[in-house]
Amino acid sequence: MGHPPLEFSDCYLDSPEFRESLKCYEIELDRTSKSLKELIKDGNSVINAINGYSVAVQKFSQTLSTFQFDFIGDSLTDDEINIAESFQEFAGLLQEVEHDRMMLVQNASDLLIKPLEKFRKEQIGVTKEKRKKFEKESEKYYSQLDKHLNLSAKKKESQLQEADELVDKERVNFYESSVEYVYQIHQVQDRKKFDVVEPVLAFLHSILTLNNLTVEMTQDFMPYKQELQLSLQNTRNHYESTREEMEELMKRMKHPSQISKMHSFLPMEGYLYCQEKWALGVSWVKYYCKYHKEGRLLVMTPCEQRPTTKQGPAQLTLKSCIRRKSDSIDKRFCFDVETVESRPVSITCILIALSEGDRKLWMEAMDGKEPIYHSPIHKQAEMELNEVGFKFVRKCINYVETKGVTQEGVYRTVGSNIQVQKLLNAFFDSTHPGDVDLYSSDWDIKTITSALKFYLRCVLCEPLMTYTLHRDLMCAAKSDNLDFRLSEIHSLTYKLPEKNREMLEMLIKHLVNVCSHSNENLMSPSNMGVIFGPTLMRAKEDTVAAMLDIKFQNIVVEILIEDYKKIFSNRPEDSTVPPIPPPRITPRKRQPITISKRPPRVFQALSPDHFHRAESNY
């Protein structure tokens, strides 16, 4: 129940009930003043917390904007470009949010703190001053009244009259202060209903307005988020495919028998010790050497630099290479190389390899006169693309499209290696080739899809899209110009041998059909690219650089699937291939994904007067 109203007439009576009612109002006033102090204190804490949070977010966004993604290789996929630029987009979004936040809370003190402080000082403070005056005048009046009533009637008339006038004066002052005090109490009780609520309303409105703007930005962010998540998933799939290939390469490179195969594609390089003769004897100096077989150029870079001079690499033209006889020197693994300098003078250098196997590799690379010994590389029997192979691929495709086109993860799930080898051995048996019923209970969908991939990847003597066109296909996939990328792959497809193109068309048509059921099997063109990129294409050399290009092999297969009709329905209009632009030199035809930008907002400065004017319009 509320307080009883204070009547001005009660000020003259000054009854105990009046004083008790006045006491209740004073207690309420003290409670309001204390609550306002807490509200102002907590409001300042909220404002400081918002400012501190905003400063931290802005610092975070600056760190994001300066973060750099280095990459391996000579080009990035579209997905990798989107990922590399994502932190810039994140930073821009955060900066936009914080810009809006600071615009809306920069006047928070004017909206909340100052109006509350003003009310507490001007209204409650004035009321307390009126209270002090009332209590002072009350004390003076009742003190004077007590003195007046204690005067003896025997006093002179002039003295009694003077005392009466003094009491009347004090009574008027007391009544006046009492009325003003009651009036001020009513004023502060009525004004606090809007003078306290309006600033809180304005401050709350600014916070909720920011939340509403954040919701709008979130809606604008969602399409970008979905595109970026797709890029992240595609890149993760490419990584998994590349990681598996690189692990296999690492395992192969641990065997010495693979080193000679590796050096058949690359310049021979490694550490050698060269004999150098000095006045006081002979020393062996360590060099890092690289031999380029095309120009018979041997580049020797000293590993131990002399303190006085800095030596650069020496370039020598090789004339001959001969193994050093064991009884002619007390060192092992030696061989002689005869070089020709700019002058027609031959120089013979004695070199020491790191091992006997290393010496054989150097001599093999330099066409040395010593026989080359290396362990034969065990390799599975390979075969040319023939009618039995076509029959096998057709049967596998027919089975998948009949039995497993809607199966989740078709071609992604792997079958038993034993069963795969059993199926291939039975189908390609020289006595009864192709005489296998795939619909038999001996085979399941995983075995058949794995056998198809294994045949294309490991059984054929070269990949379906050939070693010859591999480099051109990689350059096309790395192009920033999407139209050029498609037209180049279209043109290169028709440079394949007839049988290869026929099987490629049959296979891609099948993959298009499988991808058309992606809602059920979850196999999109991008997923198929990850699976069949390394299956249909690969570099002739086994190197880490070739492994890193697998993601572009995946892109080639993805383009073949997405543009199947354009590529295989018509031959390319111009058979001459235009020059391939270097990666990222020309502007991108398609802009990378980005967060949509809204027109700049104009915010009206919020204040209690703003709300007062808004209410007056109703």
From TrEMBL:
GO molecular function terms noted in the UniProt entry: GTPase activator activity
PH domain residues: 265-371
UniProt-annotated stretches for the region Disordered: 572-599
CDD domains registered for this protein in UniProt: BAR-PH_GRAF_family (cd01249)
Domain Rho-GAP as annotated: residue spans: 383-568
Signal peptide residues on this chain, from the entry's feature table: none
Pfam families: BAR_3, PH, RhoGAP
Domain of life, source organism: Eukaryota
Coiled coil (UniProt feature): 225-252
Record GO cellular component, one term: cytoplasm
Annotated PROSITE patterns: PH_DOMAIN, RHOGAP
InterPro entries, per database record: AH/BAR_dom_sf, BAR_dom, GRAF_fam, PH-like_dom_sf, PH_domain, PH_GRAF, Rho_GTPase_activation_prot, RhoGAP_dom
GO biological process: signal transduction
Name the record gives this protein: Oligophrenin 1
Natural source organism: Echeneis naucrates (Live sharksucker)
